[in-house]
Amino acid sequence: MVENSQIQLVEKPTTVNLNRFVKPIDIKKLVAQYGTPLYLIDEDTLHAKAKELHKAYSKFKGQVKVAYSIKANFTPAILKAFMKDGIAFDLTSLGELYFIKQCKADPENIIYTSVTEELEEYIEVLQSGVRRIVVSSFNGMTNLSKAASKIGGAAPLTMIRVNPEVGVKAEVRASYRNSKFGVPLNGGTIDSTAKMIKHLMGSDLLKFEGFHFHLGSQITDFSCYTHALDKMDAFIIKMKKENPAFQVNTFDIGGGTPIFYNDPVPTPAQMAENHISKLNQLAETHGTSTLMIESGRFLVAESSILVSRIVNTKEYNEHKIVIVDAGYHILLDAALLKQEYPQEVVPVVSDSKDKTTALATVKNTHLAGRLCDTYDVFPLSKVSDLSESEVGRYVSFYNVGAYSVVFNMPFHCQTKPPIVMKDSDGKFRLVRKGTTHDQLFREEGGELE
C-alpha cells in the first residue's frame, strides 16, 4: 500500500520515451501519399495497453475485466483491434452502439451507460442483445423496466451508477456534490442509490448486478479511490442488513488511469497498488466476483501521433512563431484543457549523403495552428523539441489518440484528416479516408440549394 494513498511523483525525468512507432523515412512516405495533417495509430500499442491495465490488477482475488470507453476514440479499426483482446466496451449512445454492432462485437461484452436514459433508447439497446445496463436515475431505471417488459427475455443485469461525492484532484472531475453523473448513496429523493436498490430488489423485470462509479480523468492522487471504496463498504453493509438477499456481483471502479503529457505520472500498477487491498477486502466480505476497470484515455492516447506540416514562420525580438497546417479543430483539448501534447520536429530524411546542418534555435518558440482564432496556439510539453522548425518540415504531436479524432470539427470549412494504422505485422494501411471540401459542402446542405 502506498503511504498516504498517494504516489509521490519525481521531478521531470532526464529522458522520456515517447512512442516513436513510426520512423522518419516512413513519415516521409506516408505524408507524400496522404498529405497532412495525418493521424497515425499503432496497433501493437493498443494491445500492450490493454494487457498492462489488466495485469495491474492481477492481485485482485477474483475475475478482472477491462472495458474500453469508446467515447475516447470510436475509429472502427481501434474497436476491432480491442476485440482481439477480448475486452469489454463501455457505450453511452445509440450511435456508439451502431458502431460497435457494425464491428460485430459480442453483446455480452458491452456495457451500456446512458446519460439520457430514454425509453426508446433502452428498447433499442435491449433489442440489440445488450443485457448489462448501468442506470443513473430512478426515472432511467423505470424506463429500463418498461423496455424490459416490452422486449421480454432475460432480465437485464442492472448496475447503479453511484456518485460517492468524494473530493477528486484531477484534470477532469466526475464525482462531486450535485454532479450530473450518477446518484448519491443516500438522499431525500427517489434519486438515491438506497431507494433504487430497494426498488430493484423487488423487481421481476430487472436483476440487480452491482455498482459503477467514475471519479475523473488523469487522476494522480489516489486517495479519492480509498475514500470512495470506504463509503461503498459501509453502504453495502447497511444494504445487507436491510435485505439479507442483497448481493454485489460486479464492481466497476471506472477509469482515471493517467497518461503522460507534460509531467511524469504513476503507472497503472502503482495506481492499483493503492486500493487493491481494499478491493480484495470488499470481495472477501461482500462476495464481489468481477472487478471492472474502465478506461478510454489510457488505452488509446499513446497509440497515436498527429503529423502536421510547418507552413509558415515569423520572428521578432527573441520570439519565433511556428505555424502548422493543423489546429484545435483536430486537437480540441489543446484549447479546452490546455493539453500539453509532446511535440517534436521530424528529423530530415535526406536522399543524398550530405549531412543536414542544424539550424539556430530561437529562444522562445511558439507553436500555432492554422485557424483564425486566438485560442489556436498549442501549449508545449516540457519534453517538446521545436528546434529546426522551418517551413516544409513536419511536426509530430504525440499521445493524441484520446479525444482528438472524436472532436474533429469543420471550423473554417476544415475537413477530416485521414487515419493510417500500423498493423501488428508492421504494415501501414489506411483506416479512415480524409474528407474533401466537396463532401463537406454536400454534408452542410450545399446540394439542397
How is this structure best described in words?
By secondary structure, this protein is of the alpha/beta class. It has helices at residues 24-34, 43-56, 76-83, 94-102, 119-127, 138-151, 193-201, 223-242, 268-286, 297-300, 333-336, 437-443; strands at 38-42, 63-69, 88-91, 110-113, 132-135, 157-161, 170-173, 207-212, 216-219, 250-252, 290-295, 304-316, 319-324, 343-345, 364-368, 377-378, 394-398, 419-422, 428-432. It has 2 domains: 43-301, Alanine racemase (TIM Barrel, Alpha-Beta Barrel), CATH 3.20.20.10; 305-448, Lyase, Ornithine Decarboxylase, Chain A, domain 1 (Beta Barrel), CATH 2.40.37.10. The chain has 12 helices and 19 strands. α8 (223-242) runs parallel beside α9. The longest helix has 20 residues, at 223-242. It is globular and about 75 Å long. Residues 1-15 and 353-359 have low confidence and may be disordered.
